[in-house]
Amino acid sequence: MCGIAGIAGMGDAKAIRRMADTIVHRGPDGEGYFVGAGISLAARRLSIIDLPGSDQPIWNEDRTVVTVFNGEIYNYRELRAMLETKGHVLRTAGDTEVLVHLYEEYGEAGVHLLRGMFAYAIWDARRRRLVLARDRLGIKPLYYAESHGRLVFASELKAILAAGDVRRDVDEEALDLYLTLQYVPGPRTMVRGIRKLLPGHLLVWHAGETRVTRYWDVVLLEGDRNVTEESAAEEFQSLLEETTRLHRISDVPIGVLLSGGIDSSTVTGLLARGGDRPKTFTVGFQAAEDVNEIEEARLVAGHFNTDHHEMLMGSSVADVLPRIVWFQDEPVADPAAIPTYFICQFASKSVKVVLTGEGGDEILGGYPRYWWLDMSERVHAYRLGRWAEAGMRTALAARLPETRVVHRLRTLVGTAPLGDRHLEWVSNMDGRLQRELRNGAVATGDTPRGASVLIDDLLHRGALESTVASLMYIDFKTWLPDNILMKIDRMSMAASVEARVPFLDHRLVEFVATLPHRLKVRNFGTKRLLRHTMKPILPAQTLRRRKTAFRVPLDSWLAGELRDLLTDTLTSARARTRGFFHPRVVDRLLTEQRGGGRESTRPLFNLLWLELWLRQFADAPPPAHH
Amino acid sequence: MRLLLLTIDFPPAAGGVQQQVSKLADGLASAHEISVVTRRQAGNRAWDAGCRYHIRRALATPSARVNLVLMALCALAEIAYRPPDLIICGHVLFGPLCRLIRAVLRIPYVAMAYVYEIRAPRMRRIAGWALRGADAVVTNSEFTRQAVLAHGVVPERVVVILPGPGLTVATKNQLAAERRIEVDGKILLSVSRLVDRYKGHDMVLRALPLIRAKVPEAHYVIVGHGWLKPYLERLASSLGVHNAVTFVGEADDDEVLAWYERCDLFIMASRESAASGGAEGYGIVFIEANLHGKPAIGGRSGGIPDAVLDGVTGLLVNPLDVGEIADAVVRLMNDPALASRLGAAGRRRALVDLSWPKYVERFDEVLRAAICPSSLTRA
Questions:
Q1: pLDDT of residue A460
Q2: In this complex, do B210 and A231 lie within 8 Å of one another by their Cβ atoms?
Q3: Given CB atoms, is B200 within the 8 Å cutoff of chain A?
Q4: What is the ipTM of this complex?
Q5: Contact B238 A227 (CB under 8 A)
Q6: DSSP assignment string, B326-356
Q7: Which of B265, B312, B305 is CA-nearest to residue B282?
């Protein structure tokens, strides 16, 4: 695990050092540089495997191919053996070195043999050619910018800004996407000139020309009638055990971030059954008993007799929020980032690697909206939609309060296309409010269509017949890489801890993607397959738990300890002069919130996060090493 | 001898089992009086007219269960009308009927086993009962023999006879079909219905980017049709190799022969399903490719090691290892001498060791032994 950076087309020792200095937290154990004719590479290293040997950059036998690498290759031992039988001479004992030899053997197609999480750069000195690759599901990040025929790339956006090549212009289309989704879906970022390399993609740069190609995508299959719940569970379990075993590979101690939910409990259980006594870590909130998951986690920890550690978050949220925003790198207004930040800091005192349950919801159908929207599509198929919609237009329905539940109900019975209804469901700022914020008046100006266009495009590309599969595909392409994985990567790296996500092993993902979705989502139930498989292993109480979002006491924070930060930041002259949002509407939201209106909590949190981000990223050069 | 052959799978439908059963019936017809009971299908009239034995076809309905009952009724009628000396049970689903007839009318039966139908979990009980009651069981590979033995059948009663190539005769239309092929490059060919995931097309597609890194002109041709086709098409494009893959779809015999002739090597990286019992029982297609002088790459699973002799008529690979699949393909594409040596050896084997007259001869021995048990010798 590391941070990487580089500039193709220029050897600039000063710039590359500036870039690496912004991401010291990703790799505090060591640094390495290579500056040659037309190339600068840097790596910050967090040593996990082959502690003394694998300092980067790493070269091939005749020093014509060099790599910097962020991630873990879980099948590196098999690959080393395979490469050695083909006559390659490997000098280190680690996983990084397989990348250069795979490149020698298969060119950029070598990526197809990797099992793990990765973002890497390979410089082919003979052909003066740079290859960038990002793992299939987007577990590890990779950003790039093109300017003056050069290509600047790095693990984090702030490192690219530090290179000084890119202007800090806010991409206003990205801004609209952010307001709708709370994150910016790739390949865009909030900075106009900087892009994310999409998951499952390769970038080849040569002589100022850049070519981006896809090498992997999740392909969902429906209609295999031969599959029974038993046979699927049997194969699923063997794959899950294999991936957990692979994710254990490490030369340093590892732990588990345990929330008490079914995903992290599964990881804990399989790790414990594998013979280890894992260290488990849980975070709770001192002041908010109702959203605590401490008890659930304690139950699982006791069941598997783990070495369990708990921490309670105090009242320092306001002090650390700007830091979290800085570490989060791109604006991702997910309140769950806050407890994730604290738990990673806490875990980092005892371990260097943590396993987490991220991805379980996305691959196994963990979101209730899959079921609800599927149901509503069926209702529409039977032409009941118009009746239901008429029902919602009656005087009685008009008197319902505009709460989130009612809003969702309207979404379900509405006749909008699937993509729009998906957006209405996931978005925490509806289109009307967004329009008002941006334009100052109700219903004038165009509705920002960016998100809608993006989702429609994904639906078209997925070309899937079933609603559930279509929605899962959308999540694989947006929510998973650009929110979930971004959050766990940045918050773990902020504490210099490596987070591993066993559920996102691509072999497991490919297998689960070919299962009929009736095994995942049916009759209000989510993650059926996982519950079925883990029945003999997990405590019954854990299996019965319904899906809840990572519960964070956001309302009480905004009303309490974050209140001053919120008001001061959003009403400051600095925020107002940007002209992104209409002050009157911001003030109205603040007033509503102070009056106890929970509907404005999430929109305000989005705006707060964005303003804190703009101050640190768009206004000034980001301070190196916070 | 008067024989009755009961089978669900029979031409004109395509498939390895269909080929095997019809070649058997045809061969046995020269020494015995044989009738076949099966079901109706599109185009069966023309096919039946060209056969030199009696075929009775039951009405076909959309329900497989109803079809089975109708075929069983046809079989009873056939037994009443032309009492056979022996019944060949071409599918274990006919096993219970055969076992009852054996108990009541004392007509012995020989069962044929392919693989999936006796390994599938839902078939376990019925298959075991049917196989244990048979006077002999003929399997198509050592793997299938082991699966039969797992049902508790006495080893002396289980015989392996390796089938030969299904499609053999070159036709005038084949040449015309060959001329229609417009795919360039070095061709990697798979032929099968696209209904079982274990056939491993997905793994070959995943290996294709690695293969093309070393042999840029490599092109994968998939012949066959089925519900998996849209999935495989999407998979190809997800891997960025859609331009290097041709989906031929459903092909008649002439076209299939043309592809065998045109390809550089044949591949089916079949694996064993982890849970559902699906696996390759043997793989007649490998022998067909061999017959055209082409080397075959097969997944080291199921009965494939009996169809592809590793290093002799082709190469065996770990069907779950895309690197190994790619290496085998690249090795054969980059070493034409090795490819043609394996292909030539395969052709000799297909022509000499695995000829249908030999298959029928050995099957005939089993039948005679079943009538007169003392003469049964283990093959």
A1: 84
A2: no
A3: no
A4: 0.90
A5: no
A6: HHHHHHHHH-HHHHHHHHHHHHHIIIIIT-H
A7: B305
